[in-house]
Amino acid sequence: MVILVLAAAVAVLLGIVIALSFKLGDRKERVEPATGTPPPVAEHVLPHGPQLDAMRRGIPVDQESTPLPMARVMNVDIKRERAYPMQPPTIPHSIDNYQVSVNTNRCMLCHARHNAANFQAPPVSVTHYMDRDDQFLATISPRRYFCNQCHVVQTDAQPLVANGFIDIDTVLAEGQPVADGAH
Ligand code: HEC
Ligand code: HEC
C-alpha cells in the first residue's frame, strides 16, 4: 500500500517537472526575433529607407534579425567567370587546413610553377613573381604570399547588397554609353 502511494507521488512530481520544463522551453522560444522572416537578400538597393547598413537587410537596429544560414563551400572544381580581367579568380576547391604562415605556404605546394603539373593545378601567373618595380623574382613575391588576401573560396552565399555592375563585354555588345553618371 505504502509503495503504491509513494509511486503515485513520484508520478505526480514527474508530471510537474515535465510540465515546468515545457513552460521553460516556451519562454526560450519567445526570445526569438519579433520581426519574423527577413526579406530575401540581394533584393534591396542602398539606401534602404532610413537604414544605412544594407547588411542588416532592412531590419531596424533595435530589432534582432534572424541570422542567415552559414554559407557552404562549393568544392566542385568548377571555375567561375571573372567579372573583369584583373579579378583574382575565386578558388574552386575547399581550402580547409591549408596553412599559409611564415614557415609554410600550402597553396604553393600545388600552385608553384615547378609542382603545378603534378597536381594539374594552374600555376600562379607571372604577376605573382613580380616585385613592386616589376622585376621578376625566382620565388613567389612577398606581395603575393598571403593568397587569401585576394582569393576567396567559392560558396553558395547570396550577395547581401544588390549590385549593378555590368562587365565590359556586355557594355560593348549592347552599345551602351559607359555609364549615366560618367559624364
Ligand atoms: C592539393 C593541391 C592544391 C592546393 C594545396 C591548393 N590548390 Fe588551388 N587549385 C588546385 C587545382 C587542381 C586547381 C584547378 C581546379 C580544380 O581542380 O579545383 C586549383 C585552382 C585554384 C584557383 C583557380 C584558378 C583559376 O584560374 O580560376 C585558385 C584561385 C586557387 N586554386 C587558389 C588556391 C589557394 C589560395 C590555395 C591555398 C589556400 C590553393 N589554391 C591550394 C590545387 C590546389
Ligand atoms: C595582391 C592580390 C593577390 C595575391 C596576394 C595573390 N593573388 Fe593570385 N591572382 C591575383 C590576380 C589579380 C589574378 C588575376 C590576374 C593575374 O594573373 O595576375 C590572380 C591569378 C591567380 C591564379 C590564376 C593564374 C592564371 O594564369 O590564370 C592563380 C592560380 C592564383 N592567382 C593563385 C594564387 C596563390 C596560390 C596565391 C598565394 C601564393 C596568390 N594567388 C596570391 C591576385 C592575387
From TrEMBL:
SUPFAM superfamilies: Multiheme cytochromes. Keywords: Electron transport, Heme, Iron, Metal-binding, Periplasm, Signal, Transport. Electron transfer subunit of the periplasmic nitrate reductase complex NapAB. Receives electrons from the membrane-anchored tetraheme c-type NapC protein and transfers these to NapA subunit, thus allowing electron flow between membrane and periplasm. Essential for periplasmic nitrate reduction with nitrate as the terminal electron acceptor. This is Periplasmic nitrate reductase, electron transfer subunit. It holds the Pfam family NapB. It comes from the Bacteria. GO terms for biological process: anaerobic respiration. It is found in: Periplasm. It comes from Marilutibacter penaei. InterPro entries: Multihaem_cyt_sf, NapB. The keyword Zinc does not apply. Its main location: periplasm. Belongs to the NapB family. One of its GO terms (cellular component) is periplasmic space. GO terms for molecular function: metal ion binding.
